[in-house]
Amino acid sequence: MREIIDAISRASIRIKRAIEFGDTGYSDHTNKTGDTQLKLDIASDLIIEEEFQKAHSVKTIISEEKDTAKTLHENGKYIIGYDPLDGSSLIDVNLAVGSIFGIYENDTNGSSIVAAVYVVYGPRTEMVVAIDDVKLYRLGADGNFKEIKTITLNQKGKINATGATQKGWAAYHKKLVDEIFSDGYRLRYSGGMVPDLHQILLKGGGLFSYPATTDTPKGKLRLVFEVFPFAFVFEKALGSAIDGKKRLLELKPSHIHDTSPCFFGSNDEIERVLNAYAKQ
Ligand code: AHM
Ligand code: MG
Description:
Elements: H1 2-21, E1 26-30, E2 36-38, H2 39-53, E3 58-63, E4 70-71, E5 78-86, E6 97-105, E7 113-121, E8 125-130, E9 134-139, E10 145-150, E11 159-162, H3 171-182, E12 186-187, H4 193-202, E13 206-210, H5 223-236, E14 240-242, E15 262-265, H6 267-278
Parallel strand pairs: 3-5, 11-12, 11-13
Antiparallel strand pairs: 1-2, 3-4, 5-6, 6-7, 7-8, 8-9, 9-10, 13-15, 14-15
Bound molecules: 2,5-anhydro-1,6-di-O-phosphono-D-mannitol and magnesium ion.
Magnesium ion is lined by residues 64, 83, 86, 226.
């Protein structure tokens, strides 16, 4: 596991440089989800692949930016599902973006994830590593990540991060969101999953939701690269992560780019989601 985290550290330092000084234009390609890839999406994917080539414990990589899985080391132990540059459409407005990694054994079902790492490229570069607990690291001037603290969620928070287009929300979802705001929660939503969830984790709690909508009944966020890694982080930080009715980590993707509605938060807010969705 150490060599995987070291590979992610090296990759993230290279990606940070690419974000700061690289070409922010679009490429001629679309990914499996149909998004036109930025040159930076492709560059970040290649950087990560190059760094994982040096880590012999990595058997297979599955990237949001690749159509199919790729085996790097036949005798490796781990499968890594990753989103090289999540929220990349925010780069042209200079908001924070991130990289997300799920480390799996045997297959990419939610129950097979054994560690998760994400990196936030914001005013500072931070890396969060979840294995037994959740640790925050920050990149220093010496080019090394330094441990800052262990992240633990409170029972209840103050942030309500509400994703997806509101006109596609179900009435019961809208009612839940309205009730949470009526209780004094504040809206915090940049449109970048990594900084939005990082904010909830570091401010002690709250709720991030990306529900089903009339257009996208299975939500937008991808299980293997985005949803399972953050579900693992939230559970290890003593919060919860559900699809509305059950734990996200109980889900089995039907294909590598499969998606799910998702809710991440501290336990009080997730309890509210369970109550609102149980009646449906
Ligand atoms: P991306 O991987 O194509 O960048 O999309 C994922 C992003 C997440 O970071 C974010 O939570 C979500 O899409 C925002 O979607 P929306 O604009 O529909 O709220
Ligand atoms: Mg993404």
